[in-house]
Amino acid sequence: MERREEGSSGSLPTQRNDDDTEKRGGLIKIPSYQEVLGTANSSSAKPHNPYPSFSQVFFLKSSELYTPPLPSSLPPPTSGAVDPPLSSTPPFSSSSAAASSSYSSASASGQNRNAILVSHRQKGNPLLKHLRNVRWTFADVVCDYLLGQSSCALYISLRYHLLHPDYLYYRIRELQRNFKLRVVLCHVDVEDVTKPLLEVTRTTMLHDCTLLCGWSFEECGRYLETLKVYENKPSDSIREQMHSDYLSRFTHALTSIRHVNKTDVVTLGSAFGSLSHIMDASMEDLARCPGIGERKVLHLW
Predict the structure, then answer these.
(1) Are 164 and 144 in contact (CB under 8 A)?
(2) Are 124 and 217 found together in one domain?
(3) Which pLDDT band, with edges at 50, 70 and 90, does 155 fall under?
(4) 239 part of a folded domain
(5) pTM recorded for the entire structure
């Protein structure tokens, strides 16, 4: 009766209290179109970063083996442009032009040119504590480790690959064709390595990358140091050194034949005198030499 009297007086209730809602059995309020539109215009959704930094993924805290880096205080921008924060940058939305510009700007100074440029994604990675023989610094690069103008490295552990099987594919696709040497540095940190290592190897080979496996953070750091140190060195340092004198070349030519050793080279050289005479000799002439049996004669012939 009371509600009818209120309705007859012309003052209909437009809003109920929470107590009345609970008494009526939990009435759900449906927002209007204007309210939804106003909320969407006022606050925009934050972009989601599916692959955060190393420390965020593995929940690293301060310990004797790892000390979180101090927050860097950036100077206020002089111009009117404001750079977006790193966390709000989508991980897979960079183009080739933006990537090449970031590489050139990151390695502009001479100090950065002689140092490994480490992506901010790798903050908290214990591998950085083992980079002692070369300088390194954080920079805004697409890859995990920028080792030179034409070489880079991506870091992944098998434990992380089991959690995110598609992570390596998207990271390689993000590099595009900006580097001549693209290294995938895989940290083997699980006991059963058959299936995950096969998947990583397959992905690496299909995208023309070089796979390097390390069983500890120290070994992975050693790989990065070696790649940086030998960045500008020619291939002569790892090529076999060939002497120019005749005896060395004569020995190298004959020992390349199976079952022929250096003692046989001395015997053949004393008997025939030169390589051309050995090539013109018959099988009977070769068999007369001491130490040259039937099997060696067949390989020489």
Answers:
(1) no
(2) yes
(3) very high
(4) no
(5) 0.51
Print burial letters for 218-229: b (CB count within 10 Å at least 16), e (below 16). Answer: ebbbbbbbebbe
140 & 174 share domain = yes
Q: Say which DSSP state 238 is in.
A: T
> In Å, how far from its chain's centre is CA 169?
11
CA atoms 126, 129, 131, 136: torsion sign: positive
Are residues 221 and 99 both part of a single domain? yes
Between CA 291 and CA 185 the distance in angstroms is 50
**pLDDT tens for each residue of 106-143:** 555 555 778 999 999 999 999 999 999 999 999 999 99
Q: Are 138 and 118 in contact (CB under 8 A)?
A: yes
**Selection from 110, 118, 165 nearest residue 138 by Cα:** 118
Residue with tokens 């050793």: 261
Q: Rounded to whole angstroms, how far apart are CA atoms 222 and 35? A: 58
Domain tally, the chain: 2
DSSP for 189-219, please give it.
-SS--HHHHHHHHHHHHHTT-EEEEESSHHH
Q: Are residues 295 and 166 in the same domain?
A: no
Rounded Cα gap, residues 269 and 104, in angstroms: 59
Residue type, 243: H
Residue of 204, 211, 60, 200 lying closest to 128 (CA atoms)? 60
Please give the residue range of the domain that contains residue 270.
246-300
For 199, residues 6+ apart whose C-beta sits below 8 A from its C-beta are 161, 165
- Mean pLDDT (the chain, rounded): 75
**Token match 């069983």: residue?**
215
